[in-house]
Design a protein that fits this description.
Blueprint lengths: L2 H11 L12 E4 L9 E4 L4 H9 L4 E4 L16 H11 L3 E4 L2 H4 L5 H9 L2 E10 L2 E9 H12 L14 E9 L16 E13 L3 H11 L7 E5 L3 E17 L1 H11 L6 E2 L7 E10 L4 H6 L4 E5 L14 E4 L2 H5 L2 H12 L5 E3 L12
Parallel strand pairs: 2-3, 2-15, 3-4, 12-13, 13-14
Antiparallel strand pairs: 1-4, 5-10, 6-8, 6-9, 7-8, 10-12, 11-14
């Protein structure tokens, strides 16, 4: 099996188009066409991780955090980033990062935290805008259903918990082919009227090429009339953070102890505990302070995330509890998530989670 088979699957699960602008997810080091021997999953790619990959004959490292965020102008080994890249290249080890694109899908980083906490009725806290387009095309009556079904196979028509959604309008199309035309119906140089159906479907913008290729394969016309419109609609299953409910309301202090145990953290930094019980929980793995207002507006009782600055804790303003559990701690189960989805798809493929704790922050008890 080639590296590309693994990475293509991961990009179907969490498309690169869903990553944030500042990010650098994808294949960072290596050749996608190389045969993969074994993969090592980690949160961060450090020199120790590359050494572990060498030890266990892994020629693919799958990391959550990209080792490279910005362009490198030299490879002299002057910092840990360059040392890691040099060692990986010397030992023919590929490095793949699946970062904010995995953060931004419903069953990604945040979905795994929600699963650990036993949450239900989960949805994206801050859905993304601009990831959806609409295709409008016109088909002769006899071919409309065939074209619709073909478009659905590309993922078009998927809206939230619904699939195969489309809107269809009957009308009359007109056209006149010239002498060079090879019309499916009608005569050259004579205006033709045809009963047609206008088909409208929403699709994810990054699937445009696949969608148009499918349309051309199944549409009978030589020249296909279509429009693609960019939508400002939010994508219900793509975006930042997550909000859901606990099975039963629980006292705030009791919930914090539960959170501490489930997430296996040694310390939780939190704001003043409020009188109401915890029922609605908002969360964001990694640095999520930018979502605090969203959590308050959504009516969450507590917001779980990491990397809050001192003055940002005041922004809770007795409206919500902030629980900062640490960056590494909030994302470490991402390794478990990646192992699960890869082994489910490739049950005989050799993949392992690192034995190294890559958290750069240490705590003195």
């Amino acid at each position: 099996m080639k590296i590309s088979e693994i990475t293509d699957f991961l990009q179907q699960y969490a498309p690169l188009a869903f990553q944030e602008e500042y990010d650098n997810a994808g294949l960072i080091v290596g050749n996608a066409h190389t045969e993969v021997t074994q993969a090592l999953i980690t949160l961060d790619c450090t020199e120790d991780i590359v050494n572990e990959a060498i030890e266990f004959n892994c020629n693919l490292i799958i990391a959550h955090h990209p080792i490279v965020f910005k362009g490198l102008k030299s490879f002299t080994g002057k910092n840990y980033v360059e040392k890691v890249i040099i060692k990986a290249i010397k030992n023919n080890i590929a490095i793949y990062a699946i970062h904010t694109n995995l953060d931004n899908v419903l069953n990604g980083v945040n979905g795994k935290i929600a699963e650990k906490l036993g949450m239900k009725n989960c949805k994206i806290l801050s859905p993304k805008v601009g990831t959806l387009h609409k295709l409008i095309t016109y088909a002769p009556l006899a071919y409309a259903d065939k074209i619709r079904q073909a478009l659905f196979t590309t993922g078009a028509g998927n809206i939230g918990n619904y699939s195969e959604a489309s809107f269809n309008t009957n009308g009359i199309g007109t056209f006149k082919g010239n002498n060079a035309s090879q019309a499916f119906i009608g005569d050259k140089n004579i205006q033709h009227h045809e009963d047609e159906i206008k088909i409208e479907v929403i699709f994810e913008a990054h699937n445009a090429a696949k969608l148009l290729s499918t349309l051309r394969q199944h549409h009978p016309y030589q020249e296909i009339a279509y429009d693609i419109i960019t939508l400002n609609n939010t994508h219900q299953n793509v975006g930042s953070g997550l909000i859901g409910e606990l099975e039963q309301p629980i006292d705030a202090l009791e919930f914090l102890q539960y959170l501490k145990n489930v997430m296996e953290v040694s310390i939780i930094k939190h704001t003043q505990l409020l009188a109401n019980k915890i029922k609605t929980v908002a969360l964001c793995g990694g640095s999520g302070s930018f979502l605090l207002k969203n959590a308050i507006i959504a009516g969450a009782d507590i917001f779980i995330s990491a990397d809050f600055k001192y003055h940002e804790f005041f922004d809770a303003d007795n409206k919500i509890i902030i629980a900062d559990i640490g960056h590494y701690e909030s994302e470490k189960f991402t390794q478990e998530l990646l192992l699960e989805i890869i082994t489910k798809k490739f049950p005989t493929f050799a993949v392992r989670i690192t034995k190294n704790n890559t958290n750069p922050i240490k705590y003195l008890a």
